[in-house]
Design a protein that fits this description.
Elements: H1 10-23, H2 27-34, H3 40-56, H4 60-67, H5 73-89, H6 93-99, H7 106-122, H8 126-143, H9 146-158, H10 162-178, H11 187-200, H12 204-212, H13 217-233, H14 237-252, H15 257-273, H16 277-292, H17 300-314, H18 318-326, H19 332-354
């Protein structure tokens, strides 16, 4: 290895400096540096960050123009979405709706329309939100977008159209089952998302039916845990226990320690949120034991233990979280990373309290 081979390239440094200047509002200087970037990937990343900074400063026309200059299609669509989302976030809903017309694939338009509808709901513009949701639903159907379809369905429920929400979620289940093979988003993951959305909206029998169609025990366990968590929120604690028992049985039967630890930790968090702190503490300990059994030559044990510690902090079990973090004290980087994760949870909870 030659000396300096790990140093960032000239274009990477220019792109980074341009991003810093853009965040500070020094747009002309930032643009000057971006124009010096020759490598296509670095230029596209820089343009995306620049478009976001312009949008945050409400320079809408320039933000859209810069986003459309990105060569790589996915990066361009992502940059456009961030600009449109920022418009909706600050209440520029008509601008957002106008900007998304004929912009990109069904996914981008559906997600952007969903963001606009959500902003309209927050502002109390129910009639306008329903009109926007109709457009978003059409886009979701056209692209058979499972995850976005679930999110749109939940917005229908928020504006009092439970029947539309239930129907769209049932459609999303069909889309999930018909989806082409995808290693990143397998059918069972999609079905798990549908089941969780159905449970969140109180369609428990639909959620149970969807969970039973999941063949992978890991994703079925996640789905059953989601159903149990929502049953507790609806005051059905006895029924929830039955689903948690099923989820635990599936979790403990997973082949890989990584999966066993992840699912057990998720169920432990749900138990803690439901007020079952004793049971949650036992499950967290079980998740840690499974994490320690993961491949020591990989990053998995440290990551899993961090996940447990952060999960404990999120459910208000701070002393337990710190004890879990101390298990990594012999690995300084992992220990510091875990403490940082806990600190972020505490900071976010303080922000939420102030809001």
């Amino acid at each position: 290895m030659t000396v300096g081979s790990n140093l960032p390239s000239r274009d990477a440094i220019l792109r980074w400096a341009a991003g810093v200047l853009a965040e500070l509002g020094e747009f002309e200087r930032a643009w000057h540096l971006l124009c010096l970037v020759r490598e296509a990937q670095q230029r596209n990343i820089g343009l995306s960050s620049f478009a976001k900074a312009l949008a945050c400063a409400a320079h809408w026309a320039h933000a859209l123009k810069v986003a459309r200059m990105i060569d790589e299609e996915d990066e361009r669509y992502f940059a456009l979405y961030r600009v449109i989302q920022q418009m909706a976030k600050v209440g520029e809903i008509e601008l957002a709706l106008d900007a998304m017309r004929n912009t990109g694939p069904n996914l981008l338009q559906a997600v952007a329309l969903k963001s606009a509808a959500e902003a309209q709901i927050e502002k109390g513009l129910t009639d306008s939100a329903q009109a926007t949701l109709q457009k978003a639903t059409w886009r979701a159907r056209r692209g058979q977008l499972v995850f976005t379809g679930c999110e749109i369905a939940e917005l229908w429920a928020r504006v009092g159209h439970g029947y539309r929400a239930r129907g769209l979620l049932r459609e999303a289940r069909c889309w999930a089952q018909q989806a082409p093979k995808d290693e990143d988003f397998p059918v069972d993951l999609r079905l798990c998302d549908v089941a969780a959305a159905q449970a969140r909206n109180g369609f428990f029998q639909d959620a149970i039916d969807t969970s039973m169609s999941i063949s992978d025990r890991v994703w079925r366990a996640y789905a059953l845990d989601a159903i149990a968590h929502q049953l507790v929120r609806h005051g059905k604690r006895w029924e929830a226990q039955n689903f948690w028992k099923q989820a635990l049985h599936l979790a403990r039967g997973c082949e890989e320690p990584f999966n066993r630890s992840s699912v057990l930790r998720t169920i432990a968090e749900a138990y803690a949120k439901a007020g079952y702190k004793k049971e949650a503490r036992q499950l967290f300990e079980e998740a840690i034991r499974e994490a320690l059994g993961a491949d020591e030559k990989s990053w998995e044990p440290e990551m899993l233990i961090k996940d447990v510690a952060v999960g404990q902090a999120e459910v208000g079990m701070l002393p337990d979280a710190l004890r879990t973090a101390r298990r990594l004290v012999s690995k300084p980087y992992a220990y510091a990373d875990t403490l940082n994760g806990i600190a972020e949870v505490l900071l976010q909870s303080k922000v939420d309290e102030e809001e």
